[in-house]
Amino acid sequence: MLKQLFILLFISINAASYAQQISLNGTWQFRTDQYRQGEEQRWYASQHNTTGWDSLRVPGNWDLENEYADYAGTAWYRTAFTTRQEWKDQRVRLYFESVYNDATVWLNGQKITENHLGFLPFWVDIQEELVAEGENVLVVEADNVFKRGAIWNWGGIRRPVWLEITPMVRLERQHITAVPNLQNGTATVDIELKVSNAASQPQEVDYQISIVREGQAVYKVSSEIPLEIRANSESTKSISFQLEENQVALWHFNHPELYTTKLELLQKEEVIHQLTDRFGIRKVEVDGYQFKLNGETIRTVGFNLVAEDRTTGNTLPLWRIKEDVDLMKSLGANMARLSHLPLPKPFLDYLDERGIMVFEEVSLWGKDAMVDPDHPTPKQWLARMIETKYNHPSIIGWSIGNEIGFLDANPKAMEYVAGAIQQAKQLDPTRLAIYVSHSADKQLKDPVEFSDLIMFNNYGNWENRVKKANELHPGKPIFMAEYGKELNSENPDQASINAQEMLNDYRGKEYMLGASLWTFNDYRSFWKSNPTWTTPPSQNRVWGIVNTFRQPKQPFYTFKKEYAPIRDLAVDANGSEATITIAPRNKLDIPAYPLRGYRLVWAAYDEHDQITEGGFIDLPEITPGSNSRTFPVDWSTKPSSVRTEVHLLDPQDYSVLDTVVYFQSPTAANILSVHTASTKARVVFDPVPNATTYTLRYTSPDGKIKESRPTINHFIEVDSLKAFTEYQFQLLSTNAAGESAPSEVVTTRTDEDELPPVIWATVPADQAFFVGYTVDPQDYLYEVAYGTQPGHYSNTIALRNVGVLKIPNLENGQTYYYRMRLRKQWGFASEWSHEVAITPDGNLAPEEPQVYGMLQQDSTLILNYRPVPKSTGYQVRLTHQETGEEKVVPINAARLFFSSVVLPTGWPPQKVIVALRSKNQYGSSGWVKVPLMNEVNR
User: Fold this and answer.
1) C-alpha to C-alpha distance for 801 and 65, rounded to whole angstroms
2) What is the CATH number that goes with domain 670-749?
3) What superfamily does domain 566-662 belong to in CATH?
4) Are strands 599-605 and 670-676 parallel, antiparallel or unpaired?
5) Contact 159/117 with Cβ under 8 angstroms?
6) Domain 759-838 carries which CATH code?
7) At what angle do helices 413-427 and 376-389 cross, to 10 degrees?
8) Global model pTM greater than 0.70
9) Using one digit for the tens of pLDDT, what is the confidence trace for 557-603?
């Protein structure tokens, strides 16, 4: 008998009498099938002997395990669950949110379904195949050979799996279409519901629908006559109604207003099933060369995102989703194709909540046999994508493919694109239907003619290429779905992308409506091309402005300025007075849109990063093409202040542009270790507050003093040293106020050693941690020594994994200490790296946030704090000192530095105690009191 490997968790019970959702996540048995023997040897059979099988977490990617890091092919998963008595006469559905890419599923030795759309969910009813009472054996064969372009083909059951237990007649979905009348302020809402009946007899059902916004019902409707659903069939029903002006709040990228609709199915006046979805009311249209949101012309910016990292693969835990979206929002992103690959529901949910307009895409790319109007897979892909993602207001259009338009590579491209665009419009006439072209400037006859706008990819000669595309295809606006030039660097300090040069080539042109950079993040790949497009040996493809660990590179800061909704934020400080000047964007700038609900925030900080003074201004509406605006502020800087920051906050509290005025130079950084080779040295140090760059000063025996160039990294490497020579090293920290005193001198001699890898990041995980490091083509393997005491390493592993490795089988909450070295291909070992401490964090609540302080004006509070790694949100607790009454305000973001809170009516600010805590799926941190400015130095 197969050992049951997990405990079934009831994670959602809509109503105890009618619906259950049971998680099948957990530890499954696992085995690769390199020679594809599994089906022939009946590995799917219930009684198959699984001795020697490995075990893996679901959801997960096998590529995250050291043993399977590069495995491409077939692998098998196996688990068991027990039939329950209450499932009798119920409908039992097995639901997979994503298995990459080709999946075959067996239950109790019987094949029950296949799926070949690995980025989309699939499901199957299994009540007929269940064991009446007892254990059911579930087996999944997954194959990750299929891949798209330069993106890594992460394998496995990568998203959650669950059972849905419902009555035999149930709701399948509701499609909500909400269109505003921009003239009178009302909105029409159409809801199409689908009901299915798996019983052998017809069923009569009623329905009722509630529309809720901000906790208040704005509309309710019920069926007047019952719906009759034939046996073993489906039926649809359409309902249409109007919301009045006072019930309508439009969805906008800066004001993403959402409604919730609860659809209930009833029999004999009892609810038997329900669905809850969210939607937004908004209108997107292309009007000549103008792109309009809710009737207003906007010019937008964004990023392409490869939804993965090297420590979670593409399983996309909620904290990864939220951190990525928050980072992009802080960079001004509001529209993008976003991803070549369809995104899961939690990702789209958060885009709905935070406001980035996106196009979901059928991932055809380049020379592709599926670029054929008669091929069934793209049709299935598009249909299921629209079916499952229809209600998300962040989705403004459907893309039917990318860079497939050259007719010599895909001779049926014209026919395919024409048919796919038509299919998209038939399935969803309310959204844009587009194709992404890299050939619109090369071909007069190009599939882009069928697209609602020209989505264009461009990697050089930017201005001339968009001009040519416009000449060949006049009358359609152009959005740069991808733009860039060449790979940058894994080294954040050495990465370089000329954002201004590229964007200036697009600005000032009536037909250009926006641009989206390739890419936001580095991603795993083995793509090889010309030298400036070939992936480094670490397998980290370095297009991003953040690396795979989301550490900002130099271009991160230049894109923040170029993507900001204003051209400049200038500060002129003179003693106790200061003025802040905002220069709006030009009308044909990119980006360009009206600013409503923005704030200016300024705060002075002491050496402990506590706010000593500050304030904020609610800005008036600022429109592109208007004159600069100047705002005087109080600026009586206290002697303890080391810097003042000025931030432009958008309506969701993202700091989309900032500037810093320093009053004191930083302290010197502490040198952790110095590593030497024959002609090189690397100095590793701890960064210090208020430093923006670091410089290494080194002296040779002949007395010559040299300095390295400044860096933003946590290490400095110098070369061209003399072999077997003694050097003295000192570190200098710098900001705009000046240079620190030098650190203490460290004297070291160059030698015959090799330098250890640079450790870019150490990332905690569930019962494990990951190490990210540099890779040289001449490296042979990498060794990690680790233990639970500093300087004492009870375990050592050696691996040939490149870029990232995993240290597994650890204890959550226990701190581990490790060091690392490499062996070159000729066998010589490098020095050991400095020691790093890390604590595995699986199933643990997040850390407490570090609070910098709070600004207050009337009844509005603005909290300033450091985001907590892997948090999924925060809570603010307000306590009335006199009455003891408490209010808890949620903050639905992972990576904000400021959060605004409005006090309840009648609560005087001087009588309120404010506390903050962080949250994740496992719990909450302790509460941290938020001090007022006048409490900082008490």
Assistant:
1) 10
2) 2.60.40.10
3) Immunoglobulins (2.60.40.10)
4) unpaired
5) no
6) 2.60.40.10
7) 30
8) yes
9) 999 999 999 999 999 987 678 899 999 999 999 999 999 999 999 99
